[in-house]
Amino acid sequence: MTHQPISIVVVIAASIGGIAILNAVIFWLMPRLTRPDLYFAVTVPPGFRDGREATSILRRYRTELIFFSVLAMSVFLTGVAWFSVGFVSVGPIIQTVAGFIAFYRARRQTLPHAVPPTMIREAELHQHEKVIPGGWIAAGGPFLLLAACAAYLWTREAETPALFSGLWHVNGQLIELRGHTLPIYLITVFAILTSMSLVLYGLAHWVRPVHAGGREATRELKFRRTVSVIILVTEYYVTLEASWIMSITHHNGLIPVVTFPLTVVFVLVVLLVLGRLGQGGSRLLAAEDASSAVSVVPIGDRTPDCHWKLGVFYFNRDDSAVIVEKRFGLGYGLNFARPIAWGIVLLILMAPLIPILAHFTRFLPRAGA
Amino acid sequence: MMYKLDGRMLRIDLASRVPVYEQIANGLRAELVSGEFNPGEKLPTVRTLAIDLGVHHNTVAEAYRQLANEGWLELRRHHGAIVRDRDQPAAGSDTMERFKRPLHELIAKGLSDGLSPSSLARELIEIARRLERKTSP
Fold first, then answer.
1. Low-confidence ranges of chain B (pLDDT < 70)
2. What is the pLDDT along chain A (369 residues), one digit of tens a residue?
3. b/e string for A191-218 if b means 16 or more Cβ within 10 A?
4. Could you tell me whether strands A42-43 and A120-124 are parallel, antiparallel, or unpaired per DSSP bridges?
5. What phi, psi does B50 have (nearest 5°)?
6. Torsion of Cα atoms, A78 then A63 then A110 then A330, to 10°
7. What CA–CA distance (Å, rounded) separates A35 from A324?
8. Distance from CA of A107 to the nearest CA of B (A)
9. CA-based angle B75:A338:A196, to the nearest 5?
10. Is A207 near chain B, with CB under 8 Å?
11. Which residues does chain A have within 8 Å of residue B14's beta carbon, measured at their own beta carbons?
């Protein structure tokens, strides 16, 4: 079997480059994808976004983004030229950090124009519409798949060294196998699925709708269902990919060549779908709604600005909602005043920590000579 | 407007001087009086309503307790709040007195906002008749 480590590294580098470009595009477009009464995570008067001051803030923000994206791309290309994986990875990290700095600076420029959002709160008193398509049967599917994969590998235990391609180094070199590796891999995937299922449950029961009725509520529900579907699809994708990796019999550098680009394409599709909807379904505003949509008092996301730390982290003890709409970004974030939110964060962090901890306790194999 | 009366929607104003739990209780009472909920029907759970309104769950719990004390709801642990078949109590000697002051303030607000006494009276009578029709057997 021939190994082509150079082409594998090129694919990985290209995928990281793709992520960096996607990153830049997201930061570029984000200010226009949020709710109309929110600008750089600040509640603003209706129509502010289209005014001169807002345009000026946006221009400065995008100029900084271009500068930092060029810097990040330079680091990335240097890494490619020097064949250094470390340098390649640093590029997108620089860009992400710089993007948030640019956002934070734009937010500070917007703050003097902030207005208090409406203090009206609405709630529907009849049964909530279902959010998870397929219900809990569909949500349980990834766990059943993982269990089936685990059962399959257990029945082929004697062949595990050949089966478990995760034990092969990226250049095709076999890593020494230790008996505990497979359970740790399965536990890691299980932790990932559990954290995503918890978020899925939260989207159904712990999210406060911004609008309780009318067309806005319908658009919002459509957005929430779309995000739920995306999470569900991601769970299936993660499980199938992990099951394939664990079950593949011959490794010839195929895994990163397939998984990295596939992940980039998946992320791109998700962003296109959510970008089309806009945060909370705000871009689905029909023509007949546009004329009546401008209200005197801004609605925003009905959360006070003072509870948004750095415009990104929501902390409000008086709000029972665990999950709230993000103010800068597409999708949802957590109310860190609720203990369950920290539980979700812990579970998400557990997934990458499990193999690291196992490595330091010598459960994971190391590269062979 | 502190609470909305059209069909199973509750709306509160966090900037109002009226305590939030009282606004919630007032809004739910209006729904119950107008017959929007049948006896035996479940209200949203405390947690669900608190999340939807963006308030602390204790606030909603207090509103539910108030309505339970008035005989509107039966609170069962782990089962939520269930609408009771409530007997209409006889109005006490001070019942009208208790309503006069908030009614006085509400009407004064309407008059100061430019509404005429006749239009206010017409609206009040219309609302009372509508609620009476819904609650009468």
1. 1-7, 87-93, 133-137
2. 344 456 667 777 777 788 888 888 889 998 988 888 899 999 999 889 889 999 999 999 999 999 988 888 888 888 777 766 666 678 888 888 889 999 999 999 999 999 988 888 888 887 666 667 788 888 899 999 999 988 887 787 666 555 444 455 555 555 555 555 777 778 888 988 998 998 998 888 888 888 887 888 888 888 999 999 999 999 999 898 888 777 765 555 666 677 778 888 888 898 888 888 888 888 876 544 554 444 566 777 888 899 999 889 999 998 889 999 999 888 899 999 999 999 889 888 887 777 777 666 655 455 443
3. bbbbbbbbbbbbbbebbbbbbbbebbbe
4. unpaired
5. -65, -40
6. -60
7. 13
8. 24
9. 100
10. yes
11. 119-121
Which residues are bridge partners to A324 per DSSP?
A333
Q: How far is CA B80 from CA A19, A124, A212, B48, in A?
A: 47, 16, 21, 10
Cβ–Cβ under 8 Å, residues A109 and A37: no
Return the pLDDT at A89. Answer: 74
Closest approach of A198 to chain B, Cα-based (Å): 17
Tokens (6 digits) for B4: 């909305």
> CB distance B15–A119 less than 8 Å?
yes
What one-character DSSP code corresponds to residue A112? G
Q: What residues contact A367, with CB distance under 8 A and at least 6 apart?
A: A169, A173, A175
Q: Does any CB of chain B come closer than 8 Å to the CB of residue A122?
A: yes
Q: Nearest chain B residue to A209 by CA: give it.
A: B52
Q: How far is A210 from chain B (nearest CA, A)?
A: 8
**Chain A: residue nearest B15 by CA?**
A119
DSSP H/E element including A43:
strand A42-43
Q: How far apart are CA B97 and CA A130, in angstroms?
A: 46
Longest dimension (CA), chain A: 71
Contact indicator for A239, A146 with CB cutoff of 8 Å: yes
Rounded to the nearest angstrom, the minimum Cα separation between B51 and chain A is 5
Residues 6+ apart with CB under 8 A from A41: A34, A103, A107, A305, A308, A311, A312, A327, A328
Contacts of A120 in chain B (CB under 8 A): 11-14
Count of residues making up chain A: 369
Question: Residues of B numbered 39-58 whose beta carbons fall under 8 angstroms of chain A's beta carbons: which are they?
Answer: 43-44, 47-57
Q: Other C-beta atoms within 10 Å of B129: how many? A: 10
Q: Rounded CA gap, A307 and A116, in Å?
A: 12
- Measured between beta carbons, the chain A residues lying within 8 angstroms of B56 are 317-320
Q: Which residues are A325's β-sheet partners? A: A332
Query: Cα-Cα-Cα-Cα dihedral of A99, A104, A107, A111, to 10°?
Result: 180
CB–CB contact A119 B8 (8 Å): no
* Interface predicted TM-score of the whole assembly (ipTM), two decimals: 0.75
